[in-house]
Amino acid sequence: MENCIINKAYINGKWVDAQSGLTLEVTNPATGDVIGTIPNMRKIDAEIAVQAAKEAFVTWSKTTAAYRGDLMRKWFDSIIEHKDMLAYYLTLEQGKPLKEAKGEIVYGASYIEWFAEEAKRIYGDIIPATNIDQQIMVTKQAIGVCAAVTPWNFPNAMITRKVAPALAAGCTFIIRPASETPYSALLLAKLAEEVGIPKGVFNVITGDAKEIGKVLTESPDVQKFSFTGSTPVGRLLMAQSASTVKKVSLELGGNAPFIVFDDADIDKAVEGAVLAKFRNAGQTCVCANRIYVHSKIYSTFVEKFTQVVRTLKVGNGLTEDVDIGPLISQKALDKVWVYINDAKEKGGQIEIGGNSLSGLFFEPTVISHANDQMLFTKEEIFGPIAPIYSFDTEEEVIKRANDTEYGLAAYVYSQNLGTVMRVTDGLEYGIIGVNTGLISNATAPFGGMKQSGLGREGSKYGIEDYLEIKYISVNW
């Protein structure tokens, strides 16, 4: 395959180095090999990007929805045409299995396709007036320059999910991708450039997270800021954004309960739990973090779940038939060990796994007899560990599932409609999958409650964060 590594950032339609000339190395987590470098940009580079996006907004916001939608459709078509290439580089820099990477590319592109069509559906209102000589009109217009800091676990889809609604609404955008996985963002920019998205409309700036983030959150020229990542960092960025009272959307940490009732189809529940837990080596915000199984079927579930986990293959994501790739860093691997040792000390039983392999690889691990004193009961694991808890009553499991500061995703398995309705109503989560381990798609609103974030991405609701409502009173 032709080398498509881009070692420059993309600002105002140009491929540029950092003003300082400094660079950062990017490594393959599966091998430790250096893939390439990226510009290590700082405050001045971020300010240049903001100015470029500000100038481009003047003309982009005045284009028609049809024009923006047509360009976005071309971008979508180009991504699908190059999906194999994009998936290869995503796996190279992030580590997830190639089949998962291909799925992410198609999933990420679906947001561009969806919002290309939603651009034409930004409707206003005429409200019945209180006086006979008055008309009340409500219009919606692009909020302005938007910026985002995106994570390494979904380096393609977390970008398209934010950029697509913004561009559809008429906003311009600045992305600061994770330094571990910058090439997916830069390749998206390359394809956007090739299909004719104007300069300054979509910018990718790489480098120092602290300095760049401070500019993007505190600049008065940035009207909307979005972040996907940990809750502690989200709190900090939200506080920084308060200085200019800009609109903020946050998709933060999760601690997803996966609840299996005694009337569930156990085989389907096992299949869904494996999917929800071990995708991307457990490094997703909607991973099944706590698996609650009714005591009547606990032993059967653990046995069947462990049998399936035993078949999962760990290895380099570019190798055929691999199910689980490496963790992203040594820090992530060290964190997994903390949870393993803590669980053992507190009575957890390792049914399978529990060991490091070479490099950043870790065996998929099942821990039975999990209890509420273990660290991962309150903390997000972000690794291939599946703790399985036992419960007896509906009321009990709802209370335990909600006993967390997070409220992003949850899963419920039951064949009883009454149980499903009561439990989904009682769970304090923004996304709930019933009898499924796959919950995200472009047509549905993605986002959480409590300290899992603010706002929604995807669906008809996702474009609202990029619009301002204007009320016009016309009197005669």
TrEMBL record:
Which residues catalyse the reaction? E251
Q: Which domain of life is it from?
A: Bacteria
Keyword Oxidoreductase included in the entry's annotation: yes
Return the EC number: 1.2.1.16
Q: Which UniProt key words apply to this protein?
A: Oxidoreductase
Q: Which GO terms describe its molecular function?
A: succinate-semialdehyde dehydrogenase (NAD+) activity
Q: Which Pfam families match?
A: Aldedh (PF00171)
Ranges for domain Aldehyde dehydrogenase: 15-472
GO annotation, biological process: gamma-aminobutyric acid catabolic process
Q: Which InterPro entries match?
A: Ald_DH/histidinol_DH, Ald_DH_C, Ald_DH_CS_CYS, Ald_DH_CS_GLU, Ald_DH_N, Aldehyde_DH_dom, Aldehyde_DH_Superfamily, Succ_semiAld_DH
SUPFAM superfamilies xrefs = ALDH-like
Family of this protein: Belongs to the aldehyde dehydrogenase family.
NCBIfam families from the UniProt entry? SSADH
Protein name, entry field: Succinate-semialdehyde dehydrogenase
Source organism: Basilea psittacipulmonis DSM 24701
Gene name of this polypeptide: gabD
